[in-house]
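Could you join me in thinking about how sequence relates to backbone shape in a protein? Label the sequence line and the structure token line clearly, so we can match residues to local backbone shapes. Once you have written the record down, we can walk along the chain together.
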Amino acid sequence: MTDPVIEELERLGATFEVVPCDPDLADTAAFCAAYGYAAEDSANAIVVVGKNDPPVHVMCLVLADSRLDVNKVVRKRLGVRKCSFASAEQTVALTGMEIGGVTPFGTGDALPLWIDSRVMQREQVIIGGGGRDRKLLVPPATLAAHPRVEVVEGLAIAVDPAD
């Protein structure tokens, strides 16, 4: 059986490490707590739907200690009046991946990737691995190798952990 995530990473010559995980612990907060990763070293891939005819989609990658600015930055960049987070069903349809395992790699040509600039400042980040049973540990250079990537300043807003 082929693995589109690993195939794309290998085709790109990217540096990555597969980190196995319990599928029940794949959601970011549970994963970080169970496996000892800090939220600022973990990034979430979030699919956004721009309400247009036809709809437009983008995948955004933001640090887990941040909140994607979907109503201002993403909406304006998509050039739509309204946008929202894709539902779990839409995410599976667009990426072939379940929430908790979504990664920018292996999605085909359908989705552009916007990465918050703060992600690119980390030494390495843990991201979804294409399934809930694994994550990928990658340096920013691997993310920069994505064929449809754009680094966006202010894509996400840092969240105070006390909030």
In short: Strands lie at 17-20, 43-50, 56-63, 66-68, 83-85, 113-116, 125-128, 134-138, 149-152, 156-158.
